[in-house]
Amino acid sequence: MIEDGPKRPVHSRVVKVLVHRRDDRGMRLEPFTSRCVRRGEVHELVTTDHPATAERIDRVGFLGFVEIDDAGVVDRGDEVWVDGEMIGTVLGFDACHHPNHYNILISTPSPRTGPEVGMHPERTVRFVQAPGVAARGPLSAVGVAR
After folding, report:
1. pLDDT in tens, 52-76
2. Pairing with 137, which of 18, 20, 23, 56 sits 20 to 30 Å away (CA)?
3. pLDDT in tens, 32-42
4. Domain count of the chain?
């Protein structure tokens, strides 16, 4: 069964750069593989090397906060691009600060901070459907509700 059709990229702009990391953050992935985002919402971007199956996300690098340019859907597996450079893929969402904002967790080989990926205020950050996802069907995350 194919669940994922094509979608437009979600564009956003950096409003605040974060420069720190933690090894004891204790985030937890929401059981949902996608989240709708609205124009004007602000969300936090966090990198990690933990897998999607981790019970706790402790090793993290904080990139910063972005403001969503236009409404859209961010999915687990979306590529994350900062000014034309792919920095990782969406691992999932932590809602410890919701409804203020989501932490959008990004899978990277090691946790990275805002300056390490070239984040600056007003830089463009895009969430782009990975090539072939619409043709492949649902992402194969075990035990994850849509």
Report:
1. 888 899 999 999 999 999 999 999 9
2. 56
3. 999 999 999 99
4. 1
